[in-house]
Design goal:
Pfam families: BACK_BPM_SPOP, BTB, MATH_2. By secondary structure, the protein is of the alpha+beta class. Among the domains are: 121 residues, Apoptosis, Tumor Necrosis Factor Receptor Associated Protein 2, Chain A, CATH 2.60.210; 77 residues, Potassium Channel Kv1.1, Chain A. The strands form 4 sheets. Strands 2, 4, 5, 6 and 8 form a 5-stranded antiparallel β-sheet that branches. Helix 6 packs antiparallel against helix 7 and helix 8 packs antiparallel against helix 9. It starts with a strand and ends with a helix. The C terminus is likely disordered.
Length: 352
């Protein structure tokens, strides 16, 4: 049984929101200083402000942060107000958050979009306070102990061969996390009295990352340059071994990597592994002006349209002389001819 008391003083409640600004170039049609609530002295800058809706006064403090491609705050563009401010009718913010030229020259503006996170700390008038505790119970730590089994190899009873590398693991842990491995370890291998698995569908570093997730329920940290490829390969492995949460984590990460150089590969992965969220993110990206035109003549995209004809219909692009599902009919020009694709893209972008 626990007890608590109601205390009549302030307690802080925190929250955050990521704002993605798409079509940044369109804002340049506004002349400097003409943005809402931006003074002329702030012309040439990008500004962010917070306003409180309603008549009730709210006490809070805030922080705006420009995010890099990995979703982490850029220290030089993370600006906060240290004091608690009363929000009511008046708005508070940063009139000079980042110069337009500085943003345009940076790597944080990608495919005509960038992201800003707002962290808000609201001060409530009342809080609850736990009664005195004579015993402190630590948070759950079972995952740490299971993770230690992988690094210590204590009690390991199965080996996994990938290429020239061998990994040791525990049948019960693998089986508990993956229905596919459950069947392989306790049905097929039991019949043959085996304790060795040969995996030829992945690289050793990918297996290492998969095992880390199985034992620790978290992703293995990798170099920033390897994050994209690792997420792509782990997505396929997670689907193969029915690791649902790992698959969704990788799918979410890949949504943040979508650009003109990765969107075709992302669409292929989405189709092969049933990733509806990734597919929707790719479609949203291709709807932005210029993006579809930039990638439609690539070999990868033409191969994609020939193997997945219905994608054209899903994008609102049914070629001239094609069936309703996007596949060619007799006498029609080839689906992936350059002239036809150019005409499709021109017509499609006229809609947006």
């Amino acid at each position: 049984m626990s007890a608590s008391s109601l205390i009549a003083d302030a307690v802080e409640v925190e929250g955050s929101h990521v704002l993605k600004i798409k079509g940044y170039s369109r804002t340049k049609m506004l002349s400097d200083g003409k943005s809402i609530n931006v003074k002329s002295k702030d012309a040439g800058w990008i500004s962010f402000f917070l306003y409180c809706k309603g008549s009730e006064e709210v006490e809070a403090k805030y922080k705006f942060s420009l995010l890099d491609e990995m979703g982490e705050p850029v220290p030089s563009y993370s600006k906060s107000w240290s004091d608690i401010i009363s929000f009511k009718a008046k708005g508070w913010g940063n009139g000079r958050f980042i110069e337009k030229k500085a943003l345009e020259d940076s790597s944080y503006l990608k495919d005509d979009s960038f992201r800003v996170r707002c962290d808000l700390v609201v001060c409530n008038k009342f809080r609850t306070e736990d009664a005195k505790q004579f015993v402190t119970v630590p948070p759950p730590d079972m995952q740490q102990h299971i993770g230690h089994l992988l690094t210590s190899q204590v009690g390991a009873d199965v080996t996994i061969q990938v290429g020239m590398e061998t990994f040791t693991a525990h049948r019960l842990v693998l089986a508990a996390r993956s229905p596919v491995l459950m069947a392989e370890l306790f049905v097929q291998m039991k019949k043959n009295n085996m304790c060795h698995i040969q995996m030829d569908d992945m690289e050793p570093r990918v297996l290492k990352a998969m095992l880390h997730y199985i034992y620790n329920d978290s992703l293995l940290e990798v170099e920033k340059e390897e994050a994209l490829v690792m997420a792509q390969q782990l997505l396929a492995v997670a689907d193969r071994y029915d690791l649902t949460r790992l698959k969704l984590i990788c799918e979410d990460k890949l949504c943040n990597f979508i650009d003109t150089s990765t969107v075709v590969t992302a669409l292929v992965l989405a189709k092969e592994h049933g990733c509806n969220g990734l597919k929707k993110a790719c479609f949203e990206f291709l709807k932005l002006p210029g993006n579809l035109k930039a990638i439609m003549l690539s070999d990868g995209f033409q191969h994609l349209t020939s193997s997945w004809p219905s994608i054209l219909k899903e994008l609102g692009m049914v070629p001239v002389g094609a069936k309703e599902d996007g596949s060619p009919v007799g006498g029609a020009r080839e689906l992936s001819t350059i002239d036809n694709m150019k005409a499709i893209a021109t017509e499609t972008h006229a809609k947006y």
